[in-house]
């Protein structure tokens, strides 16, 4: 690789790097520019109130040369765990420096501390991870260490004793609230709500979980500020995490309509399944929107602003063809068996999975197919967990399958508005595959013991004490006599 | 048809008929048994409070021999208008007699008086009809004479001066309300809401329409009764029309959950598009449920009952695999061109249609395909009517189509919860095809003027002054020289 071209290029690359360093240095002292916003809020830089600070970070990010992104859409995804390291996000944090410099390391330390050791780490930083399939539907309520995480930035480490958030914008009396304020039951009635969270990204099928939150309704907080004024119709939520997009920095920021808040479906939650929130889930106080995509729930909340129109930030509008995604469509998945599994059965394959719908709708009917979607069997209601607003239903079903060899198992669900799922991924309507709810399909290798020849072969294997190993390995005794 | 068998059967049939007449006569005097319930309510028999009356009607209906139903699922549907006469429903009304005897004739007279002469009469009695496709999306608000009608029984003819309905069941103070009570603006704030109505049955694609209702919120009426008591969670609505099912008679009766009423989404409406309600639409007072299927809206309301659990009547539960349908799934349709049309175009076929979703959700994205669903084109937002809660969006789009001959145009829609439509009817989940929202597909014959040969042929036809008639008729001059 040391041809003449490389030799010629070297001085130029070196020159570019020197120039980068000079350009970055010219922006100023990063430790002073990008400081911690509040005492006791490690890793929190406030961007939204400081256009100059945003401009400085932008200058740094555009001066530096970063590696191009690897291609994973058309090539194989690594089988490592973490699957992807998040190289760019780490580099951006280090480039901006200041309070952001230590965040990637701190965040990974928190993952190792707070999450289950068997988690599938899809992205190391910002952390995205989900539990392995065998844990997904194992319990009605997902234990905190196994709940999926979809973070958009690093984890701020906030001291709860100095925690507060501000409620401002179009409210009569803007003010701040500490945790003690919110926990004062004489002022704010405490509520407990159970719901599912799902991300809007196309993950594996374990990115779902059921949580019981304890907290208060945001509606009461707005009331404590004297209510909305001047035609406010939306609430904008600000998270203390830093988000990067197109060489710009920003705090994580989304909005929901007032009607959602008014219906008491937006919570400020300090309890998750009977425990304090883990830091990775937004400690000390996340804002939780029931029945909307997880991306509308904001962790490490530091500000709520009442506004007239939905927020136009990238994550809410621009990445999805200008459609403001709030509720999730109906969806479902097969958790067992798993794809490429060899399934030995007696004419019926035991299937387990979940079904969910957004906006407070619930699954009414689940169907399974063992032939790619030609014949369908309905899961009897008694094989499904209870209907409940905001939550999924799990199912178990013995799916008839007569044939042997590769079969495709598909599941689909109807919710109570009778919406159901498109059969295949071709209905995806945006390049990022956001909120693509087509039927979950898995390929399994069917070995049907009710077939005499199969039965004989399996008996032979058992007699010879040979495990039914990978089907691609030739058996060690003659298969015909 | 006068073979030996017929001759032999005749005395038996005659004997059966005689027996029928005797059995019916034994039940009693039908004019006394099935009388008008209230003065000024022509055609209203109250069944729900009189088990004996129901039993008497059942006895009559089971004593008599009715013709078997004709087979329309596997044979051609008549091309008459009315398409189907509703022979059985008429026979049942005549058999029960009393106040019901005149209803089929009275109802048809009202159809002719109140509905547009171009209506497509799908069923003469009980009346089901929809406007022809060319009218469906012509106006933002559907004119009353063109609005589709899905009646479940005959039309009671009610004098508004004696009209009242009762609110009872689990409310603190049960009472009755006259129209004057409801129209008293000092007691009940008047509301105006615009929404779409759609039936839950699989009709042609014209069974949708947009209405502006004027009336009051049911919530205020419940408040005027001192509120709900004893754990009431649902509201049951009684209509003055008579419904028949499995030889039983009943009033039309459904329920909706209290949460829907509480959100001010259930109206008592006396105005429809600036006019009084037509009798066929529930005059003087129907109950309208915003964003639910039309079948939950009850015409000729005579009673509301607060109850603990959803009603278990046939129309709400038993006809749909025990799934309680309330909201509609996302759906869409092509109103122009129409199926089997020959479309002459310049490489793009002008398509018009509508898209809708239930529960207050709205269409976000509409796509069209001219190749049966392989390639899809997105309708630009500026080619769609405004987003509005509860209502449809109409669209117009020039759909690229290069090929000639039979092509299949398909449309599909995503709503704001990103639900979309299954591609074909195979996803139907109940035998009656209730709330089947698969993509609308039409076959048209494409004649593409951008193709030189086609252009030449069309020019020849024009020069020879020969109309471009049915494509199956041979042209009268040599097509080759």
UniProtKB/TrEMBL annotation, chains A, B:
GO terms for cellular component: mitochondrion. InterPro entries: Ig_E-set, MoCF_OxRdtse_dimer, Mopterin_OxRdtase_euk, OxRdtase_Mopterin-bd_dom, OxRdtase_Mopterin-bd_sf. It comes from the Eukaryota. It holds the Pfam family Oxidored_molyb. One of its GO terms (molecular function) is sulfite oxidase activity. Its cofactor is Mo-molybdopterin. One of its GO terms (biological process) is sulfur compound metabolic process. Residues 324-445 form the Moybdenum cofactor oxidoreductase dimerisation domain. Keywords: Metal-binding, Molybdenum, Oxidoreductase. Residues 152-311 form the Oxidoreductase molybdopterin-binding domain. This is Sulfite oxidase. It comes from Paraphaeosphaeria minitans. The lineage of its organism: Eukaryota, Fungi, Dikarya, Ascomycota, Pezizomycotina.
